[in-house]
Amino acid sequence: MRLLRLIILLAAFGGFCAGSSAQPQLRGTGDLGVVIERANGSVCIVDTTVRAILSCIDGLGDLSHASAVFSRDQRYAYVFGRDGGLTKIDLLERRIVKRVLQAGNSIGGAISDDGRLIAVSNYKPGGIKVFDAETLVQVADIPATYGAKRERSKTVGLVDAPGRRFIFTLYDAGEIWMADFSQPGAPEVTSIGRAGELPYDALITSDGRHYIAGLFGEDGLAHMDLWSNPIKINRVLDGYGKGEAKLPVYKMPHLEGWALAGGNFILPAVGRAELLALNADTFKEAGRVKVHGQPVFAIARPDGRHVWVNFAHPLNDTIQVVDVPSLQVIHEFKPGPATLHMEFTPRGHEVWISVRDADMVEIYDARTFEKRGQLKVRKPSGIFFTSRANRIGL
Amino acid sequence: MRFCKTLLHRPRLEVAMLFLLMSTLASAEELTPQRKVELQNLILQDCGSCHGMTLKGGLGSALRPEDLDGVAASTITHIILNGVPDKPMPPWRGLLSDSEATWIAHALKAGVLK
C-alpha cells in the first residue's frame, strides 16, 4: 500500500516535471502589438486575435510620447522613450533584451529597410543617433548643427527611406536632412534644403517616394519627391489658413498614419478644425473636411476608404470617421476622456483606441463601429502592432 | 505666542513666508481639491506632451523649479493665460481661470507636481 502511494506520488511528480520542462507553445507574432503605459514606464504586449494583454513589462523610464518600431521578423519591438531610452523587447519571451539611455530627451525613431539600423530622433542634445539593431551599439552620431553658432537642432519627423536611408527634419533650423547608410563606413549626411518655420512632424508615403513636413510657423507644408533628381523641396497647400487667425493648438497634430485614398492625401490642418485633402499627383488642394476640433491624428483604415480622426484638448473625448470619396463625416462617437491614439489591425477589421484618462484601451469593429471589447491599461497612449514591421515609414 | 516670538526673532523670513503662504492661499482659494487633482493631471499628461511628463522639457521648455528660477510666478501665469506669440505654446485663457493659472505657476515653481 505504501509502495503504491509512493509510485503514485512519483508518477505525479514526474508528470509535473515533464509538464514544466515542455517546450513553450509555438506561436507567431504577426497578430501581436504593444501598448504604451505612459505614466508607469511600462509596455504591455497584446494579442489582437484574442484581444488580450499577454504581459506588461516595467522599467522603460519616461514614456510620455513614446513610440515603437519592429524588427523584420516581428519578434522584437524597439521602444523610444522621452528620456532618451531605447529599449529592445522580445515579444515571445516577454522581456527586455537590451536597453540604452542614448540621449537626454528624445521623440521617436525609425528602423532601416534592411532591419539592421535603429535611428533615434533627439531633442537634447539635438540630432539623431543610429544604433545596431542587434546589439544597440551606437553606429553613428549626427548632431544636426546649424547657423553661425553651430547649435544642435531638435529633430522631428524621422523616417526610414528605401536604400538604407533616414530622413529627418530640424525643428529649430527648419531644414530637411538625409542620412544615407547605403555605403560601408560613415553615412553620407546631406541637408536637402529649407522646409519652413517650425516644422513639427513629417511623414513618408508607404512607397517611400513622398516626404511631407508640417509647419507650425507657416501656413503650408513642405513636400519632397524622392524620385526627383536632384531632390527638391516644394511648398504645398501654401496659405491654406487664408490669413485667418489660428485657433489655439492644445496638442500638436501628428502626421503619421496619413491617408491616401481616391487620389488624395488627407492631413490634419494646424490651428483649424479641418482636415486638408491634397491631390497626390498635382499636390494642389483637393478639398477640406470640417471636423470637431483641432485634429491630432488622421489615420486611414488600411483599405483607405475611411479616415479616423481624434482631437486636441479639450475636445479629446471624441472620434470622427470621415468617408474619403465624399469627404464627409459619417460617424462620431465618444470613447472617453483623453482619446489619444488609434491603431488598426493589419487589414482593418478592428481598431484599438487608447482612452488615457479612463485607463482603458477600447476595441471597435472598424466597419460597424460596434464595440468589441476593452482592456484595462494604466494611462495608455501609443498602440503599435507588429504589422508595422512590413511598412515603409512606420 | 511662540509664533509671535519667532516673528520677533526672525522677522524678515517669517513675514516673507507668511505673505507667500497668504498669497498662495488667496490665489488658490476657489480651487477645490478635486480641481487641483484635475489640474495636476492636465499638467503632467497634457502639458507633458510638449514639456515632458517629468517637466524636463521636450518641444516646449523645461518647467522644473530649477528651470524657473528667476522667472516670476506672475510671468508664468501670464504665459499660461496668453501663450507665446508665434510659438506652439497656446493661450489657456478660456480653459483656465486666472486663479487656476496662478495656482499652476506657484505649483510649478514649488515643484509639487509629481
Layout of secondary structure:
The complex is a heterodimer of chains A (394) and B (114).
Chain A: H1 2-21, E1 32-37, E2 42-47, E3 52-57, E4 67-70, E5 76-80, E6 85-90, E7 95-101, E8 105-111, E9 117-124, E10 127-132, E11 138-142, E12 145-146, E13 151-152, E14 155-161, E15 165-170, E16 175-180, E17 188-194, E18 199-204, E19 210-215, E20 221-225, E21 233-236, E22 259-261, E23 264-268, E24 274-279, E25 285-290, E26 295-300, E27 306-311, E28 319-323, E29 328-333, E30 339-344, E31 350-355, E32 360-365, E33 371-376, E34 380-385
Antiparallel strand pairs in A: 1-2, 1-34, 2-3, 4-5, 5-6, 6-7, 8-9, 9-10, 10-11, 12-13, 14-15, 15-16, 16-17, 18-19, 19-20, 20-21, 22-23, 23-24, 24-25, 26-27, 27-28, 28-29, 30-31, 31-32, 32-33
Chain B: H1 2-9, H2 11-28, H3 33-51, H4 73-82, H5 98-110
Kindly describe this structure:
The complex is a heterodimer of chains A (394) and B (114). Chain A has one helix at 2-21; strands spanning 32-37, 42-47, 52-57, 67-70, 76-80, 85-90, 95-101, 105-111, 117-124, 127-132, 138-142, 145-146, 151-152, 155-161, 165-170, 175-180, 188-194, 199-204, 210-215, 221-225, 233-236, 259-261, 264-268, 274-279, 285-290, 295-300, 306-311, 319-323, 328-333, 339-344, 350-355, 360-365, 371-376, 380-385. Chain A is mainly beta and 394 residues long. In chain A, a hairpin with a 5-residue loop joins strand 18 (199-204) and strand 19 (210-215). The model of chain A is unreliable at 12-21 (pLDDT under 50). With 114 residues, chain B is mainly α. In chain B, 60% of the residues lie in helices and 0% in strands. Chain B is built from five helices and no strands. Chain B has helices at 2-9, 11-28, 33-51, 73-82, 98-110. The longest helix of chain B has 19 residues, at 33-51. In chain B, 27% of the residues are buried. At the A-B interface, loops of A face helix 3 of B.
